[in-house]
Amino acid sequence: MSVAVPTWHATRPPVELTSFVGRRRELVDVRKLLSSSRVVTITGVGGVGKTRLASRAGALLERSFPGGVWFIELAGLNDPELVSATVAAAFGLQHQSGTTPLTQLPDRLRDRPLLLVLDNCEHILDGCAQLAHSLLEHCPLMRILTTSRQPLGIAGEAVLELAPFSVPPDGAGSPERATLLRYAAVALLEERAQAVDRTFAVSADNAQVVMRLCRRLDGIPLAIELAAVALRFMTTEEIVDRLDHRFQMLTDGNRTAPTRQQTLQNMVDWSYRLCSTAEQILWARLSVFGPGFDLEAAEVIGSGDGIGTDEVLDLLVGLIDKSIVTAERYPGKTRYRLLDTLREYGRDRLAELGGTTIVRRKHLHYYRHLAAQAEAEWFSAGHTTVFARLRAEHANLREALAFSVSEPGESQAGLVIASSLRFFWLSSGHVYEGRRWLDRFLALSMERDPVRVKALYVDGYLNAALNDASSGSALLEQASALAAELGDQSGAAYVAQISGLTALFNEDPARASALFEDALAKHRLIGDHAAAAYDQIELALAVAFLGDHERAAALFRGCPAVKETYSEQWMRSLALWAKGIADLLAGNYRQANAAELESLRLRLGFHEQFQIALCVEILACIASADGDPARAATLFGVSQTIKKNVDASLAGHKHVARLHDHYEAVARSSLGDETFQKGVHHATQLDFDEAIAWIRNPGKAGEPASSRTEETHASVLTPREREVAALVAQGTTNKEIAAIMVISRRTAEAHVEHILTKLGFTTRTQIATWVIQQKTARRCD
Q1: Domain boundary among 264, 282, 297
Q2: pLDDT for 388-398, tens place per residue?
Q3: Which position among 187, 269, 274, 501 has the lowest Cβ density within 10 Å, counted as fewest Cβ atoms?
C-alpha cells in the first residue's frame, strides 16, 4: 500500500531576499557545534530568526559538504508519521513494497557527506527525532541541523538557544547613531524601515522612541519587521503608544511568508497550539508576573484548580522546551521570564479563561508576604540576598501594587507592601515611586490601625528625603497622634526616629539629638535591637554636628555595627559612613578616609547607587580637607555622575549638602575654576566600574594609578594581545576568545600566556584590572 506524500523538494538554502542583519557570533557557534556534534538544534521563541540563521549557516557551509546542503521545510506537515516519507521524497526516493522510508534513507545516504537542514520540527517532534536518530546511526558522514522551538531530545544533540536581538538597555541615555546601530534590533529596524520609507534613519531626534520600540518588541526580529512595515502608515511614536494592543496592530506582514509568520498573532498562536492544555493554563497564569519570576512564585501562583504545586515544575520545563519561557541562570539561583509579547498573549488567554482577578489576587498576596518578610530580614547577615531579591522582584512588586490600587477591597494589602519597602525605596533610589504609592494608598484606605501609623511615618520619611519638609512633618504629626490613640509603642518609637532624621536632614542637630535619644530609649524598651542600633548611629552623627567630638567618638565605639565582627553588613556600612563624617568634622582625616572606603566596599555589594554616591561625596570632602584638591575635584565629579544616573540629589540631605558646598569651595579655590572643572570633567569620562577602581586604587593622590601602569606596560603588548586582554577583562573564556577571533583554542591560550608573562602577572583578574586602569588613564589624560 502506498503512502500519499506531499510534493516537497530538497533544495539549497532559500535565497535571501533581504539583507542578513546581526548573528555573526551565532553563525560561528553553529559552525563550531557542527564540527563537534553531528546533530545541532537551533531553538528559540517564534519569530526570533531560527530559520534565517539555519539558512545562512547552510549557505556558508556548502563547500564543507560535497554531498550538498539539503534544506527541507516541514512547517506545513502535520503528521509525524510522514516525516521520513517527506524527506525521502525530497531526495527522489520512490516508495518500494516491503520497505519504509526510514530504512530506505540510510541505505541511500550512507556514504554521502551532506548537511541535512530540517526546518520547523516542533510540531512533529517525534517523527523528526526518530528520523535523525536513524540517519545518524547509519550515515557516518552526515550532519543534521534542525530548527525547532523545542530540542529533539536525542543522544548527541547539541542545542543552540537563539536569543532575541540585542536592544539598548534602560537608562542608556541618548547614544550616538553609530553606538545605537551596534544593537542588532536597531540596525534591523532601520534597514527594514528604509524599504518602506527611504528617508527613515535613526538619529538624535528619534533615538529615544526607537530604543523604546525595540525594547517593547523584545528584540524579536519578526516583530521588528512587522513594526517596520507599519511605518508606512504610522509614526514610530504612534506604534510605541499602541503596543499594548500589538496583536491587533502588527498584522500586515509578508504575504509570501508561511502563514504563521505573516502576523504576530499567527506566530504566537502556532506556539500556543504546541502546548498541552495544562501548559496553556500555566502560560496564562504566569502572564500576571512582571518580566521575571522564580520557581517558588510560579508554584504558588501557577498551581490550583487542576494543577498541583508539584506539577508546576514539569509544566514549566515543558514551556521552556517549547521556547515560551526563558530560564535565566544566576549564581545560586534560576529565574524565568516571558517576553513581553508572550506575556501579553498569555494575559489575553487568562481573560478568556475568566481567571484574571483570582490569579492576580494570589500574586498580590504572595508579594505582600515577600515584602513583609524582606523587611523583617533587612537587618540580618543575609541582607545582601534580601536586597538582591527585592531588586529582582521590583517589577512584580509594581504589578502587585497596581492591582491593589485598582481592585476594590485590596488597598490595605498595597499599604502593607508600600510601607514594608521603606529601606528598599531609599536604598534603590526609587524614593519618588515609594512616596507616590503611599500617597495613593493612604487616600484609599481609611482604617485607623498600626498599618496606617507605619505608612504615615514611612511616607513622612520619604517626603523629608525628597526635601519636602512641610509635607513630611504633617505626615509625622498624623502618625504620632494615631500611634498615641492606639497605644502603638513601636509606631511611636519609629515616629521619634524619623522625626530625628528629618531634623538632621534640615540641619537642626540639637533637635535631632533629642529625638534620637527618645527613639533609642523607646526601642530599647520594646526590645527592637536593630532599630536601637540605627538610633545610636544617627545620634552619634547628630552629636558630631553639634561639635561634641568626644561623645560622638564614644557613641561610635559603643556601637556594635562599627566593629569588623558585626555580621549585619548594611547597618555596618551606615555606621562607617556616619563615622567617616564624624572623623572628618573632628579633623581625623586618615580615619575618616578608611571608614568611608570600607563603607563604600560594603555598599558596592548592595548595588545601592545613591548610597554609593553619598560615600563618594564624603570621600571628596575628606580629600579637599586633607589638602588634595585634584582628587577631590574628580571625586565630586564621580558623585555627581552617579546621582545624575539615578535621578537623585542632596536637596533632601542638607547636612551633607552643606559639607559638599564648603569643601567644594575649598578645592575650587585651591585649584582655580578651570582646573577644578577639568577634574570634574575627567570623572564624567569614566564608566562606573572604572571610577570605583580608581577611587579604591592606592595610587598617587589625584592621579589615576593606571597612568603609571600604562607607561610601563602598554607598549609591551602587540595590538592582537591588547585585543585578547580586552576580551579577558570582559570575563571571556579562552574557548570563547577563540570563537570570537576565529582562531584555535590553543592559539588563544598562547596569547593569554604571553600577556601574563609580559606584564608580570599570574592571574586573569590582574589582566582585567590592568585593562580597566588603562582605560581610566586614557580618559583622565
Answers
A1: 264
A2: 889 889 889 98
A3: 269
Write down the H helix ranges in 565-628. 569-586, 589-606, 609-625
How far is the C-alpha of 624 from the C-alpha of 615, rounded, in Å? Answer: 14
CA distance 258 to 360: 36
Q: Do 668 and 574 lie in a common domain? A: yes
- Residue 740: which of 727, 753, 755 has the closest Cα? 727
d(CA 378, CA 380): 6
What pLDDT does residue 368 have?
97
| Mean pLDDT comparison of 229-238, 392-401, 751-760, highest-scoring range | 392-401
pLDDT for 776 equals 59
pTM (predicted TM-score): 0.65
Distance in angstroms (rounded) separating the CA atoms of residues 359 and 286: 9
Helix 719-729 vs helix 734-741: crossing angle, to nearest 10: 130
Q: What pLDDT, on a 0 to 100 scale, did the predictor assign at position 762? A: 67
Helix axes 489-505, 654-671, angle to 10 degrees: 20
Among 424, 447, 465, residue at a domain's last position: 424
Same domain, 58 and 127: yes
Arithmetic mean of pLDDT over the chain: 83
245 and 215 within one domain:
yes
Task: Write down the pLDDT at residue 256.
Answer: 46
Q: Is residue 233 part of a domain?
A: yes
DSSP type of residue 355: -
Q: What is the pLDDT of residues 714-728, one digit of tens each?
A: 446 777 778 888 888
- Residue 742 confidence (pLDDT): 63
Per-residue burial over 595-634, b if 16 or more Cβ lie within 10 Å, else e, is bbbbbbebbbebebbbbbbbbbbbbbbbbbbbebbbbbbb
| Conformational region of residue 772, where left means phi above 0, alpha means psi within -120 to 50, and beta covers everything else | alpha
Distances (CA, A) of 488 to 452, 526, 604: 11, 11, 36
- Spatial distance between the Cα atoms of 335 and 294, rounded to a whole number of angstroms: 5
List, in order, residues 6 or more apart from 1 with CB less than 8 Å away.
none
